[in-house]
Amino acid sequence: MKTLVAYFSHVGENLQNNEIVELTKGNTEIVAEKIASLTGADLYKIEEEEPYPFKYDDCVRRARREDENNEKPAMKGGVRLNMDEYDTVYIGFPIWYRTYPRIVSTFLSAYDFSNKKIRPFCTNDEGTFGISLLEMQGTLKNAKISDGLAIRGVDVRNADERIETYVKG
Ligand SMILES: Cc1cc2nc3c(=O)[nH]c(=O)nc-3n(C[C@H](O)[C@H](O)[C@H](O)COP(=O)(O)O)c2cc1C
């Protein structure tokens, strides 16, 4: 059985140290690639059919609408992984509004994660998972969800040690 690293990450304006900055590579993507290289896992980028806006304010507006309406935005490429191949799945996302973006909800609902080991990781501006892990537990009732790794966006490039410890743990 194999390991998968599935993640969503947004390129564009983002919140860093409470300021809007433009990122050319997503924070979560940096962590996802590091985990995949340490584990030899397959790497899969969760992408939205209708791109989230580049501008922070527009992105916040869309994220809030999707969150308030419990939307399930469509995934680009649809459901195309063979989840049966994997027994361990790392799932990575930025925190938007105290939880994962709704495109990650779409991903979690699209596959059967029963009895799989789930290893969540997130990046954010404040350093916690918010309510995302609780939400994930509610959605993936038959999965074995382990403790997660939360890294602040400003720290992702200096987090190698934490990532290595997490992967080994
Ligand atoms: C729409 C939006 C909402 C966000 N909401 C939060 C939040 O509630 N709490 C937080 O700590 N960071 C929040 N952030 C900051 C991101 O979580 C942080 O910049 C993260 O590292 C971005 O990861 P990415 O580059 O992989 O998308 C938000 C960012 C965006 C774009």
What is the fold's blueprint, element by element?
Blueprint (H helix, E strand, L loop, with lengths): L1 E6 L4 E5 L2 E5 L3 H13 L2 E4 L10 H13 L17 E9 L7 H9 L6 E8 L7 H8 L4 E2 L3 E4 L7 H9 L1
The structure holds flavin mononucleotide.
Q: What is the level-2 CATH architecture name?
A: 3-Layer(aba) Sandwich
Compute the gyration radius: what is it?
A: 15 Å
Write down the CATH topology: Rossmann fold
- Broad CATH class: Alpha Beta
Helix content: 25-40%
The largest sheet, given as strand count, sense and whether it forms a barrel, is: 6 strands, parallel
Mean pLDDT: 97
| Discrete helix count | 5
What is the general shape?
Answer: globular
- Taken as a percent bin, the fraction of beta residues is 25-35%
Count of structural domains: 1
CATH superfamily: Flavodoxin domain
Q: Unreliable runs, pLDDT <50, ≥5 residues?
A: none
What molecules are bound to this protein? flavin mononucleotide
Descriptors for this entry?
single chain, 169 residues, alpha/beta, Rossmann fold, six-stranded parallel beta sheet, two-stranded antiparallel ribbon, 8 strands, 25% strand, globular, binds flavin mononucleotide
